[in-house]
Design a protein that fits this description.
alpha/beta, about 45% helix, binds pyridoxal-5'-phosphate, single chain, 8-stranded parallel sheet
Length: about 220
């Protein structure tokens, strides 16, 4: 696969599911990829990338941002409150807002900075113990709490359990977003982004299908 193949598949999925052409944003997930592979995708003109660790993002993106203009960087992995400031300075969007303590920290820093990245609330749709995210039953309350803090909540994000049909999880996320008046849906990865698009994804997070297998596991 290549960037071109993936953008073509996204366009096809938009068309076949009656979505507006260009309405789905491709986040190229560059975590753990060698810099030359990332540079190759930047050279092809792509500018929207995802990282799952603040530290890794901080070690490679300031450099790339100097060399390429218009980079749009999304944090898609768990965020510790003590890294929130760094994440806000570095990233244009954070997809892993998942608890009141983090929301409070982001709100305080946003006040201080006078700006805040776009935020997505992570929902643990599979109710898995080891996975981050608010439980589906707590999502409405947490969205309201974040809005009460004046945080720019743009949408919801989920990572379905590996062994389950992702469509059920995407549909659940879409339902929670709709009843909360949220447009953004960050869902779909290399193996299931077309299904996610059919169910309303606005942001798909695709790593290995663009860059090739990750050199070492990122989890
Ligand atoms: C790594 C990662 C992805 C991309 O996974 P692929 O299967 O390589 O497309 C998407 N979302 C999150 C949260 C990730 O950590």
């Amino acid at each position: 696969m290549s960037l071109q193949d993936i953008t073509a598949r996204i366009a096809k999925a938009e068309k076949s599911s009656g979505r507006v052409q260009g309405s789905v944003r491709l986040i190229a997930v560059s975590k753990v990829q060698p810099n030359d592979r990332v540079a190759a995708v930047l050279d092809q003109g792509h500018r929207c990338f995802g990282e799952n660790r603040v530290q890794e993002a901080a070690s490679k993106w300031p450099d790339f941002k100097q060399r390429y203009s218009g980079v749009d960087l999304h944090l898609i992995g768990p965020l510790q409150t003590n890294k929130a400031r760094q994440a806000m300075d570095l990233c244009d969007a954070i997809h892993s807002v998942d608890r009141p303590k983090l929301a409070n920290t982001l709100a305080r820093l946003a006040q201080e900075k006078g700006s805040c990245p776009d935020l997505f609330i992570q929902v643990n749709t599979g109710e898995e113990d080891q996975k981050a995210g608010v439980l589906p039953a707590e999502a409405d309350g947490f969205v309201a709490e974040c809005r009460g803090l004046d945080l720019p909540v743009r949408g919801l994000m989920c990572i379905p359990p590996v062994s389950e049909e992702p469509a059920l999880h995407f549909a659940l996320l879409a339902k929670i977003a709709a009843r909360n008046g949220l447009d953004g849906l960050s869902m779909g990865m290399s193996s299931d982004f077309e299904t996610a698009i059919a169910l309303g994804a606005t942001h798909v997070r695709v790593g290995s299908a663009i860059f090739g297998a990750r050199v070492k596991p990122a989890e």
